[in-house]
TrEMBL record:
<dbReference type="InterPro" id="IPR036380">
    <property type="entry name" value="Isochorismatase-like_sf"/>
</dbReference>
<comment type="similarity">
    <text>Belongs to the isochorismatase family.</text>
</comment>
<dbReference type="GO" id="GO:0016787">
    <property type="term" value="F:hydrolase activity"/>
</dbReference>
<protein>
    <submittedName>
        <fullName>Cysteine hydrolase</fullName>
    </submittedName>
</protein>
<dbReference type="Pfam" id="PF00857">
    <property type="entry name" value="Isochorismatase"/>
</dbReference>
<dbReference type="InterPro" id="IPR000868">
    <property type="entry name" value="Isochorismatase-like_dom"/>
</dbReference>
<feature type="domain" description="Isochorismatase-like">
    <location>
        <begin position="3"/>
        <end position="156"/>
    </location>
</feature>
<dbReference type="InterPro" id="IPR050272">
    <property type="entry name" value="Isochorismatase-like_hydrls"/>
</dbReference>
<keyword id="KW-0378">Hydrolase</keyword>
Amino acid sequence: MQALLVIDVQNAIVEAGEFSSELARIEKVIQDFKASGQPVIFIRHLDQVEESPLYKDSEGSHLHPSLKDYAEHVVEKTTQSSFFKTNLPQLLEELGVDHVFIVGFNTEFCCMFTAISAFDRGYKVTFIEDATGTTNNEDTYEMKGLDIRDFVGTVLHWSEVIEVLDFEEYVEEYHSLQKTLN
């Protein structure tokens, strides 16, 4: 069975940038999984430091209102990997999942770490590159011209163990969604 992991779509992250196209793609994938009766699991990052925008009790740590109503399962984590010291492995086992799809935020941290961790645990992994986003940019890494999503997608693709698709390829490969996004 397939499951969708929706990573860190939380107020503090979504409000830190312009992510309307990413959110629209994420929502389409969620709707697709729900329509086919496949599980959708939201991952919520919680920091222990009160000053953090993702502090466990802060408004910034809550799931973003645009997608929170889709959350049938919510797994809380404190590191970049959605698997490290969480109940995600048990939940996936209970649901009979052997293939995870990854969308959400931040591409180069939580999405990538979760993809690698899923592969390490024996899951087939599909990373939908343009249904991820990041609050960082080329200036953050002092690398002019850096497209973080494309870079991470290329590295994961080159691994030859993680399937990397853009949204349109996902639609063609896995489902027959109406192509409403550009």
